[in-house]
Amino acid sequence: MGIIRQGILGGFRKKTGSVVGAHWRTLDVIRGLPRKSGKAPTKLQKDQQSKFGLVTGFLSWIGDLVEMGYKSQSGIATAMNSAVAYNLKEALTDTGTGIELNYPKISFSSGRLRLPDDLKAVAVTGAKIDYSWSHLEKDDKFLNARDSANILVYNPVKGKLVKSKEAETRSVGAFSLQLPANFTGDQVHCYISFNSAVQKALASETFYAGKLTVI
Fold first, then answer.
1. pTM of the entire structure?
2. Which of 36, 56, 157, 196 is the most buried (most CB within 10 A)?
3. Short name of one Pfam family for this protein (predicted)?
4. Tens of pLDDT along 59-87?
């Protein structure tokens, strides 16, 4: 039974006939009941399911970074949905034998906050990745010395990642990320983004700092 909240023209919730009403992100929405199908999925459907699984599987591990990084892009959609839509379009590659993630194109942050100059990451002994960047500019609308850096390193060999949310401020200009000792010898993908200290919904683009061998 559906329940009308605000008269005949108001939104409703629960099932009414063949539709379901709900209140979602300030909106009253309705959706049809799902239909069961006995047909086997087509190759196109299987490919789409595979792509969706790859993207959501990766982004689900870093949901906190996505929530911070795509907040300004979300609008009605959630931050995660916005990130999934972008990565489905930009961060997949067809190798000829299957669909894989295109790691340099992965994005967990998107926005107008300025990235620092001279961003780089290097592998150092002891299974560490040292990030560094310059900070010489004065504060403005899209840059502040107190902006925070978010660090991500992904190891595709082991299917594991190491991250540090709000690891360091822009003004410090460096951060050293400790990786597990058993990452030594593996190649890892390195990323960094920044979030504004002044405008909470403002974030930078994701910066891919390269593919490094852990030493």
1. 0.82
2. 196
3. DUF6266
4. 999 999 999 999 877 667 899 999 999 99
H-run or E-run covering 50? helix 43-61
The answer to whether 106 and 56 have CB atoms below 8 angstroms apart is no
Nearest to 115 by CA among 191, 189, 212: 191
Domains of the chain with bracketed CATH = 43-213 (2.60.40.10)
Q: Which residues contact 61 (CB under 8 A, 6 or more apart)?
A: 161
Helix or strand holding residue 67 (H, E): helix 63-69
Taking the C-alpha atoms of residue 172 and residue 132, their distance in angstroms, rounded to an integer, is: 9
Q: Tell me the CA end-to-end span of the chain in Å, nearest whole number.
A: 62
3-state secondary structure of 84: helix
Question: Measured between alpha carbons, how far is 100 from 55 in angstroms, rounded to an integer?
Answer: 9
Tell me the one-letter amino acid at 147: D
Are residues 197 and 147 in contact, defined by beta-carbon separation less than 8 angstroms?
yes
